[in-house]
Amino acid sequence: MKKLVLLGCLICSIWSCSPEDNNTTDFYYETLPIESVNMPTEFQYGHTYEISMTYLKPSGCHVFNDFYYLSELNQRTIAIITTVFPNQNCENFENEEVEVTFNFRVNDIDPYVFRFWQGEDVNGNDTYYIVEVPVID
Question: Rounded to two decimals, what is the model's pTM?
Fold first, then answer.
């Protein structure tokens, strides 16, 4: 009897996992340009600073997800990553500004160069707002 119950459970579990399930991804990631940046004009070694950025949210389907953050020596490349839920009934926005922040800890005495991604030019090349911030004693 136990074997029959076990066999029945096994058969049910196999049929419940149909390979015909169409689990389509109902979201994707989109990188949005940074519109403005608010950050210190100088850093002090060992301190932590808040850096804030604004971006334009195209619709209610766009939700802030994370930062693209690439660190190469003293250069930082930063962009905004949103999650987009295209299958939702979302309102489109004209100029919905969203502010996001991150904390930056100064661990070097050399100046830092920040490259904030602002989209692509007409030729498809990435454009950046570049800020060099000196580190003082």
Answer: 0.79
